[in-house]
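User: Working on a comparison across species. This one is Alcohol dehydrogenase catalytic domain-containing protein from Streptomyces purpurascens. Can you predict its structure so I can line it up against the others?
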Amino acid sequence: MRELTYVAKRTVEWREAPDPTLRSGREAIVAPVAATPCDVDSSILAGHGFIEPPFALGHECVARVVETGDAVTAVAPGDLVVVPWSINCGTCDRCRAGLTAHCTAVPYMAMYGAPIGGRRGGLFSDLVRVPYADAMLVPLPAGLDPVAMASASDNWSLAWRLVAPHLKARPGARVLVVARGSIGLYVCDIARALGASEVLYVDPDPEHRTLARTFGAATAETLEPVPQSFDIAVEATGRVEQLALALKCLTPEAICESAGNHFRPGELPLLDMYLTGVTLRIARDSVRAHIPDALALAASGTVAPEKVVSHVIDWEDLPAALPEKHLKPVFVRADE
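Assistant: Here's the predicted structure for Alcohol dehydrogenase catalytic domain-containing protein from Streptomyces purpurascens:
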């Protein structure tokens, strides 16, 4: 089989690898049918990552189950499934607590798409081995389009977690989204669907702002801090100075969620945060626990994740097309 390999800045190529085989009765082999780059993949491709190439890339996809071990009961060959980005057993104390990105049964932070916690390959591969298939794989609900939900492995489900629980606790909250990619746009869609009274989306890209307005958000090219304006903030830029600006806009005891990958250091307005009583969370999220709820919202018809898909591209064009600057391209198998 082939796996798409990141080899240098804005350069990927197909490389041959052995076909994966089942190593236990609890495993499955899947074939991605719709895969998409995560926002962090865009940073890696631009040369901003912290891991030296080469390594197999990709950690967001909907796949078709090809083969299952004798002990697998949750899925069967032919099923369409969401493959979460992190490797997790589902039964250790952390997994049972929903902290699947911190599973104690595997090396720390074991994942697809980067050689952290071992080399597990990437989801831009012809075939993928999934350990702990019953714990990891989530069947795609009938009627949901694999192209629209290719990001449920990470960005779509992460966006749900960034805003949905907070809106449940704070109905009608005002939401600030400071972003550069798909996560922020998904947050706009979800926030309005779940009753936010106001959503402001800040992004220098005019096409992104236009799309955010279709989700009912007000938009701005840059953020001018206005203290005590928002109850919830989501930062997804990877720029510490943007996170600092967002923090200065919050009401007392507000929530700020940072989904940016901050590869560079910076300063935060700690005194402002202290005086306001802000709660800041910065995390590589354990999305497996949230995928079913995120898929249920997608199936409800109140959101439109398909709007964020910027291009649908043939699987064979991955090496040439992935390094190009697209918002959210989805790569599909020709026979699907």
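For your comparison, note: The CA atoms of residues 244 and 270 lie 9 Å apart.

User: Helpful, thanks.
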